[in-house]
UniProtKB/TrEMBL annotation:
InterPro entries xrefs: DegT/StrS_aminotransferase, PyrdxlP-dep_Trfase, PyrdxlP-dep_Trfase_major, PyrdxlP-dep_Trfase_small
Organism per entry: Dictyobacter halimunensis
SUPFAM superfamilies hit by this protein: PLP-dependent transferases
KW Methyltransferase (keyword) present: no
Assigned keywords, A-Z: Capsid protein, Pyridoxal phosphate, Virion
Full protein name: Spore coat protein
Family: Belongs to the DegT/DnrJ/EryC1 family.
Domain of life the protein comes from: Bacteria
High-level lineage: Bacteria, Bacillati, Chloroflexota, Ktedonobacteria, Ktedonobacterales
Length: 402
């Protein structure tokens, strides 16, 4: 859908250098979110309660999932998913190497071993062909990450997983709302984890959600998210409720608060508008950057609905006289915030040393990392902000092209 607020050409106006710094990411908070938080503060009930329950129900509806369990981070949701599958010592879990550390660290929480797999050189998502080669008799689950909000080739991955009788967990920290062949991400595989961290497409400050169609996984995750006790604490303090509860397992403290859910309810209600703003900005970037041989724009294939959490611009370094790091420095000097997603896990000291990994072990991930820049992409950006980013990038390319 076209957003008329986004101008089509930067060259139609005379550019002045920015006088203020454009942050890389800013959450979009309206009066509705603020009022809901204030209402919660006045209500006498701050932690997991009726608003969290309502948020779970509405989020489940939004992604067509029978069950949703609200937690305090995507990391918690990923951990609870592995717990629900009974992953433990000696088990292997497939993890795409191009991701944030959370996807792999939860495998270590379970004393299991992450088995890293390289990514597709174009999409930067898990490469299904490489995945099949890394499955062993010890493999117990497959993690799929939808990098930047671009859904991975989940049908192919599910076909491989089913052939080996393996469950699939989607790390959809970047992918709300996103679709794959008409299906909502969150309704497709065995379990899906979402993040509501401050910079994400739906933000509760910190927060997360686990969705599933399996009632046993949902029940286990719900129980383990609150100390492994038999009933939600909030029910204990309602009029007429019993003081009695039982601890059934040694669980975790992963529950979402009603303060966070207050933000989530309104972010969810506005999620289509928020998506349209990000889509319009991404479209504007792609239109401008696809005219430059020095730049490669991120893919946006027709069979998926991209959530556009990140705009990961790829530099064609062989056509530039500068490195990615110098490019980012030039953007900073132009007062444009930028970032890099991600440093592949095998380059980090912990994973490199623990699993004896070398940079060249995952060539596609390494190549992507060396040339990628995440640009500002958030609904609160003005048309001028978008123009400023494009102008700055075009200036840098013009100055440093081969
Ligand atoms: C791919 C990926 N997975 C998981 C996470 C963890 O999310 P959270 O901060 O909600 O735990 C992040 C956070 O940025 C992420 O980028």
């Amino acid at each position: 859908m076209e957003d008329r607020n986004i101008r089509r050409s930067v060259t139609t106006r005379t550019k002045m250098p920015r006088t203020t710094f454009l942050p890389f990411a800013v959450p979009h908070i309206t009066q509705a979110e603020i009022d809901e938080v204030v209402d919660t503060l006045h209500s006498g009930w701050l932690t997991t309660g009726a608003k969290t329950k309502r948020f779970e129900h509405e989020f489940a509806g939004a992604v067509n999932a029978p069950y949703a369990v609200a937690v305090n981070s995507a990391t918690a949701a990923l951990h609870l998913a592995l717990d629900a599958l009974g992953i433990g010592e000696g088990d292997e879990v497939i993890v795409p190497v191009y991701t944030f550390t959370a996807t792999a660290e939860v495998v270590l929480y379970c004393r299991a071993r992450p088995i890293f797999v390289d990514v597709d050189p174009v999409t930067c998502n898990l490469d299904p062909l490489q995945l099949e080669r890394r499955i062993t008799p010890r493999t117990r689950a497959i993690f799929v990450v939808h990098i930047a909000g671009l859904p991975a080739e989940i049908d192919m991955i599910l076909a491989i997983a089913r052939a080996h009788a393996l469950p699939v967990i989607e790390d959809a920290a970047h992918a709300f709302p996103a679709t794959y062949r008409g299906k909502m991400v969150g309704s497709i595989s065995d379990m899906t984890a979402f993040s509501f961290y401050a910079t994400k497409t739906l933000s509760t400050g910190e927060g997360g959600m686990l969705t599933t169609a399996n009632p046993e996984y949902a029940q286990r995750a719900s129980m383990m998210s609150l100390h492994g006790i038999s009933r939600d604490a909030w029910k204990r303090y309602r009029a007429g409720a019993s003081w009695y509860y039982e601890v059934l397992q040694a669980g975790y403290k992963y529950n979402m608060t009603d303060i966070a859910a207050s933000l989530g309810l309104h972010q969810l209600a506005r999620s289509q508008w928020l998506l349209q703003r990000r889509q319009a900005i991404a479209r504007r970037y792609t239109e401008a950057f696809s005219q430059w041989a020095q730049l490669e724009t991120p893919p946006d294939p027709a069979h998926v609905g991209h959530a556009w959490h990140l705009y990961m611009l790829r530099l064609c370094l062989e056509r530039l006289t500068i490195t990615r790091d110098v490019f980012i420095q030039a953007l900073t000097e132009a007062r444009i915030g930028a970032s890099v997603h991600f440093i592949p896990l095998h380059l980090h000291p912990f994973y490199r040393d623990t699993y004896h990994l070398a940079p060249g072990d995952f060539p596609a991930a390494l190549h992507m990392y060396q040339r990628v820049i995440s640009l500002p992409l958030y609904p609160g950006m003005t048309d001028e902000d978008v123009d400023d980013v494009i102008f700055a990038i075009e200036q840098i390319v013009t100055t440093h092209k081969k």
